[in-house]
Amino acid sequence: MFNVQTFLLDELEKLLAESFECCCQVTFWDHRTNSYGYFMPAQESQYHDELKRLRKGFRDGSITRVAAGEDITLRGTGWLSGKLVHTMEVTFKDQQCHAYMMLRRRGRYDDADHTPYFFGREDSRDSAVKWITKAAKTK
Q1: Does any domain span residue 67?
Q2: CB-CB contact of 26 with 41 (8 Å)
Q3: Domain housing 66
């Protein structure tokens, strides 16, 4: 049995666009609150703490995959309409994200296997993926 959440696609897209209107660095789906969370440029240390948490999870196996996902085009009528955001897909063990499945607009249940982290810049996303998945140094 699984927990069914009710999400409205228009609302999910609107909230995602609003986070980037605030000039955030990264927006992510927060499973604890069932909403988006984001990091502003002034929250650099919290952002790095989140990357460290993801890296630790990847190394201990509670995160099974971290990879660049397909870009998403923001919808709406504001100045960000049509802007691409760059997705990092994080696959947590035993965690689904139905909000991401809806944002993908494909109707594929396997999209729910990934939790999205959205970046305004592709190079920032790629650096995060590379750093999180970097093999641990052996002694």
Answers
A1: yes
A2: no
A3: 9-133
pTM of the model: 0.84
Beta strands in 2-128 (DSSP E): 26-30, 35-39, 63-68, 72-73, 84-92, 115-119
Render each residue's pLDDT in the chain as its tens digit; 139 residues: 334 455 677 777 887 877 777 777 889 888 888 888 888 888 889 999 999 999 999 999 999 999 999 998 887 656 566 778 899 999 999 899 888 888 888 878 999 999 999 998 999 999 999 999 997 666 5
Measured in whole angstroms, the distance separating CA 28 from the mean position of its chain's CA atoms is 4
Residue 103 placed within a domain: yes
Find the length of the chain: 139
Domains: count for the chain = 1
